[in-house]
Design brief:
Blueprint lengths: L14 E5 L5 E8 L2 E9 L3 H8 L1 H26 L6 H13 L5 H9 L1
Helix pairs in contact: 2-3
Length: 115
């Protein structure tokens, strides 16, 4: 698992990928309250790599969001295993949390059909 604590204090988003020389000089800059920061510079780099690096703060934010959703799912499953659910209510909670992951469940499909 990635230790995201190592990234605390990173230059905040947005990071912008740019090309200063027809693909020869690629760089990633961040523009913030403390001024412009050159995050990375590559010579003869790959544009897709440059864009991936530029998206690093957004990818980190998504990892942290998904970890929180998974903690919620685990908590709900633990509650179920300890007898804390009453009927369909618990499964609806799990379905809504899974929906936060962007995954459509069978329950979502059944609810759409009943509307």
């Amino acid at each position: 698992m990635i230790d995201t604590d190592e990234y605390e204090g990173h230059t905040p988003a947005p990071w912008n990928a740019d090309d200063d020389g027809g693909g020869k000089y690629l760089h990633i800059d961040a523009y913030g309250e403390e001024g412009d920061v050159c995050v990375a510079r590559m010579v003869n780099g790959n544009w897709a790599d440059t864009q991936l690096i530029a998206d690093a703060p957004l990818l980190l934010a998504e990892v942290l969001r998904l970890r929180e959703v998974l903690r919620d799912v685990k908590s709900d499953i633990d509650s179920y295993l300890n007898g804390g659910w009453n009927g369909v209510e618990g499964w609806e909670a799990i379905s809504s949390i899974i929906g936060a992951l962007g995954i459509q469940t069978d329950m979502d499909l059944m609810m759409e059909e009943s509307e």
